[in-house]
Amino acid sequence: MKKSELVDRVSQKVDILTKKQIGTIIDMIFDSMTEAMARGEKIEIRGFANFKIKERPERIARNPKTGQQIKVPAQRAISFKMSKALREVLNK
């Protein structure tokens, strides 16, 4: 689903706001989530999912084609864990 499709679906259910206003609200939600994750905060949306930052340590990897060792720097990644309610909907 693209953001424009999300805006369309919300606008079908909420006739008080325009599509532009709904798009602005969705942008603000995503911006708030991005800022929180950049600060290392966990995001919990009950009935949907949890998002948290995982710290991946620096490691040595190997290029499978050449066998050369490569140093992979430490990095942060997002972990997504769906809620029980979402899991039940997906596995009907």
Automatic annotation (TrEMBL):
What keywords is this UniProt entry annotated with? DNA condensation, DNA-binding
InterPro entries from the UniProt entry: Hist_DNA-bd, Histone-like_DNA-bd_CS, IHF-like_DNA-bd_dom_sf
* Leader sequence segment: none
UniProt GO molecular function: DNA binding; structural constituent of chromatin
Instruction: List, alphabetically, the Pfam families matched.
Output: Bac_DNA_binding
Query: Which CDD domains does this one have?
Result: IHF_B
Q: Which Gene Ontology BP annotations are present?
A: chromosome condensation
The cross-references to Gene3D superfamilies, in alphabetical order and at most eight, read: IHF-like DNA-binding proteins
| SUPFAM superfamilies reported for this sequence | IHF-like DNA-binding proteins (SSF47729)
Q: Which GO terms describe its cellular component?
A: cytosol
Q: Family assignment?
A: Belongs to the bacterial histone-like protein family.
The name of this protein is Integration host factor subunit beta
Recorded source organism is Thermodesulfovibrio aggregans
User: Lineage in the entry?
Assistant: Bacteria, Pseudomonadati, Nitrospirota, Thermodesulfovibrionia, Thermodesulfovibrionales
